[in-house]
Amino acid sequence: MAPAVAEQVTNALTAIREGDPTGAEELLPLLYQELRKLAHDRLAHESPTQSLQTTALVHEAYLRLVGSDGSGSHWENRAHFFAAAALAMRRILVEHARQRGSLKRGAGWERVSLDDGQAVLGPDPCDLLTLDALLTLLESIDKRKSDVVQLRYFAGMTVEETATALQLSTRTVEQEWRFARAWLLREFRKGDSAFDR
User: Which positions of the chain have pLDDT values less than 50?
Assistant: First the structure.
């Protein structure tokens, strides 16, 4: 992001934090392309029959973030905003998967690959619902590890961006990411033998 744009984002976030509704109006155009990329990446893991489109996901997430009145929340910086956007998109996708009348737990599961970059989910909405449940469980056990997964998977942040957002070292983020991936894979395997095929 260009320094001038970064400064505009900071100013818009400050305006929102101070209760100025014009900050929300200024923020969306500045971050729209990045939010679309984030939404597109999340939807790429969804079923091809998924009816939710990138633009709709961006707009719904943005409305949840800043509120219909533009009052928004208190984000410290761009990374904090994108972490909140990732959480909003996660919630929207989970709600949407539930509304689609997903299959009963475990039926039709697909293999899940947890590699060094992104977790790859199959088109089955159960994958997303299971991941959401496991992240909620992980959060109750170790919030920091859950936050790392949230930012790396749902926000698509790099290790460095995640470290900045969580105020951790990159080494710590890498360690937490490795542990969380292994834990998630183990928990997925407990849930269904389809992962052992």
Answer: 102-114, 116-125, 193-197
Backbone angles phi, psi at 127, to 5 degrees: -60, -50
Q: Which residues contact 128 (CB under 8 A, 6 or more apart)?
A: 45, 46, 93, 94, 97, 121
Question: Architecture of 1-101 per CATH?
Answer: Orthogonal Bundle (1.10)
Q: How many CB atoms lie within 10 A of CB 78?
A: 20
Three-state secondary structure call for residue 184:
helix
For the domain bounded by 102-197, which CATH number is listed? 1.10.10
CA dist 12 to 35, 39, 78, 80, Å?
A: 16, 21, 10, 14
- Can you tell me the distance from the alpha carbon of 56 to that of 70, in angstroms, rounded to the nearest whole number? 18
Q: Where are the domains positioned within the chain?
A: 1-101, 102-197
pLDDT tens string 153-169: 877 788 998 898 888 99
